[in-house]
């Protein structure tokens, strides 16, 4: 490698990442706009106006703005993708058509809607939607509800949801084998009630039982709704709740009113809504860990108190989670999970070991880490893996254990091992590794739960999954095991002709760059392969990949985002900090791997006034 070039590019990328902080000293990031979120918000607000015309003056400008965004961002094939850099899919396309119909624009936009409906029909129509989601009703039923509210499908096509089960104590939810994932209880209640209202069951006894549970289940919605009004800080979930309540005459219900307030607060200047408000905690801990990878003393950053303050100190009303975890943002709609908690534990470990930290600071950090470790250990599933939110929910895809989550939890527990002697850490780690060994595919790769690649089979992203698992093997000194070596060989074989990794043969030009590789996946691959057994990778692989990244830093293209993130129910997003963070982490790790290279002479800027 050209070490001078590497050091220069690392400094550029690191300083750019530091410059992305907000005035409070942490990172907020920026999520992509979302046609899917925008469509659901338009439907929700229009149905509120129908039910409560007094809201017209306040809400009509938002409806018009959302319609304008949708009409301007229809893809050339007639459909819509989740983001402005995503391929069309049947789910988002159906939601967009429903929104334009509910907004009363079918005559005005006849050609565009007909084009979209041709796309939907070509992709299987309603049966195609059901095939997309299989047994998981978390998103298929809301979409069909939206379609039914637009008069585009009979209510018989909408599966009834057992909203009355939400009246049970939370600890019983996982025993009920609900047809939706753990985080979708608000949709279960609101959409279930809408389906019941618009097509009640013929059995009078069942009708009476469900009617008796209606008010009590609405109280569950109130209890779970955060101060912001946005369930999970997510426009789609909140919009499905609002449109369902408005359709049954409940537009003035406190839940609907607060949901509308959230939509008003989160709309973008271009008339769109993002998939979530922000990933501030996730973005901040990723950034801290990336900067630490380059050998900089993150202890001089001024965001530690903010990260510590984001740890939950009480039982969470949404999932019933015990105290000790972290969520993806500091906003009230966040929920503690098994990806953000390990990320925070790894980040505060860098502060703990920083020469800039005093004993009292280290004591506070260690207390937070112990509480986080207890939370993680209690969350571990029976199969040895870690789920996202709730232990024991295994019937739906996004509730099962995930290889990426498990590897992240292993790394977090390991880094605090010396401070956790009273906890069964070793047992948790071994169970986690046994889970990972079972999840390794025959070719040596692992699949992640929360990231994808729209150019790969079934939207899978084995590069991301394999990297995250290999980092756990790296941290625990297991890179010479058969599983790690097999994974590293697979990963090395994925290098593209241009020297990068990832992407696909038909990446849209609006994803940035002429190359088929992606910044995010190339940077991830570099970080993992730096620790690989050198018998398993060709000597030219790393220089070529690092060179590809350095070229991107030099020409500025390294900031181009790819839609590799999966949100709830496999919804695509991209985040503007991802390529920056991952570039800093990989170039920093490459520098540290060359022991003869001194660290970059610049020091981390400590002031939040930058």
TrEMBL record:
Residue ranges of every copy of the Squalene cyclase N-terminal domain listed in the record: 13-173
A GO cellular-component term linked to this record: lipid droplet
Annotated GO MF terms: intramolecular transferase activity
Protein name listed in UniProt: Squalene--hopene cyclase
Superkingdom to which the source organism belongs: Bacteria
Involved pathway(s): Secondary metabolite biosynthesis; hopanoid biosynthesis
Record family assignment: Belongs to the terpene cyclase/mutase family.
Species name: Blastopirellula marina
InterPro entries registered for this protein in UniProt: SQ_cyclase_C (IPR032696), SQ_cyclase_N (IPR032697), Squalene_cyclase (IPR018333), Terpenoid_cyclase/PrenylTrfase (IPR008930)
